[in-house]
Amino acid sequence: MRHVTLFLTLYLTLLSAYAEPAFPVSALISSNSKIYQQVLDAMVLHAQNQQKPIKLSIHIIDQETTDNDTALLAKIKAESPLALLSLGSAATRFAVKNFSRTPICAALIVDDSLVKNVPNATAIVLNFPVKLQLEWLKKIAPHKNHLAVFYNPEKNQTEVQQLQRLAGQYAVTIHPYSVSSTLDLVDTLKHLSQQIDVLWSFPDTSFLNPQSAKQLLLYSFRNRIPLIGVSEQWTKAGALYALDRDYSDIGRQCNDKLQLLAQGVKAKNIAISIPEKVYYSINERTFEHMKIDLPASLKKGAFIVF
Q1: Residue 76 pLDDT grade (very low, low, confident, very high; cuts 50, 70, 90)
Q2: Among residues 124, 98, 99, which one has the least CA distance to residue 111?
Q3: I need a surface site. Which of 124, 151, 206, 287 has the fewest CB within 10 A?
Q4: pLDDT at 67
Q5: Hey, which bits of 110-225 come out as E strands?
Q6: Would 4-126+247-276 and 130-244+279-305 be classified into the same CATH topology?
Q7: Residues 6 or more apart from 281 whose CB is under 8 A from it?
Q8: What are the residue boundaries of the structural domains of the chain, listed by start?
Q9: How far is CA 22 from CA 9, 55, 122, 190, in A?
Q10: Count of alpha carbons within 13 Å of 227, Cβ hemisphere only?
Q11: Does pTM top 0.90 for this prediction?
Q12: pLDDT in tens, 47-67
């Protein structure tokens, strides 16, 4: 078994005469990739503007790290953290299983399923509310009114019901398609209603992977039915557009929650939140292929245009 532990201890102060003792935080991260570093760097930057200094130790919890890794647990507990920052699903699962009393601030997790019943945890989740998705659909493709939604009922039944309740306000009809595997999704694409004029999927790894994403994109292209992407990478591959997050701002949100924990606020009293800054990417060639108007203002406002 291999795990990488970085004893990178950062004393985040303003280099001024604060007498406050440092607030020790152990950061558990699921990857050392660019996005994770972006969140950490921004958290560090914003912590420098706070009165409460933070002492941060970083540990990478990768796919080879087991939940009962006693050596890693001993190292983290030896740091006597007063809070944990967990970035990603693997790190958050590890934190929730092994630290039932230490406050946890989780981020870079898709939804709140890992923390919603955990009294010592709060989070910033990646999923955008379905209302926001409908608002952006009408901004970007206002004449598309029949939305196929692919979802796993074990995970997103509540969100689909919310979509159906809200749809009338946006003159949209929701066509929900329950799928639980890649094969399910591929088979479902063969039997879509003739009314469908736009496609969207919840970002669920139980049925979404590179192969099924390719099938969705091919179906979209061949049938001239636009696909709303899950991320910027999907837009680049041919989706009409995708909403995305400002990961640096997620770092700021992490610092905000850690500062509240440092002040003694209970994690259960800190609301789970979503990214506060929304970016969007668009694929100009897909707009042309789908024969959808692309106003200059929409193009100008995009974070990136492919």
Answers
A1: very high
A2: 124
A3: 206
A4: 67
A5: 121-125, 146-151, 173-178, 198-201
A6: yes
A7: 229, 232, 235, 236, 241, 242, 244, 302, 303, 304, 305, 306
A8: 4-126+247-276, 130-244+279-305
A9: 12, 6, 21, 59
A10: 26
A11: no
A12: 987 777 889 999 998 766 776
Q: Which residues contact 112 (CB under 8 A, 6 or more apart)?
A: 123, 125, 272
Neighbours of 142 (CB within 10 A): 12
Cα–Cα distance measured from residue 126 to residue 202, given in angstroms and rounded to the nearest whole number: 12
- The pLDDT of residue 6 is 46
CB 189 within 8 A of CB 208: no
Is the CB of residue 83 less than 8 Å from the CB of residue 261? yes
Q: What is the mean pLDDT of residues 120-130?
A: 96
End-to-end Cα, the chain, rounded Å:
41
- Structure-token pair, residue 218: 């091919």
- The hierarchical CATH code for the domain 4-126+247-276 is 3.40.50.2300
Superfamily designation of domain 130-244+279-305: Response regulator (3.40.50.2300)
Measured CA distances, 137 to 131, 222, 257, 277 (Å): 10, 21, 31, 17
Beta-ladder partners of 57: 26
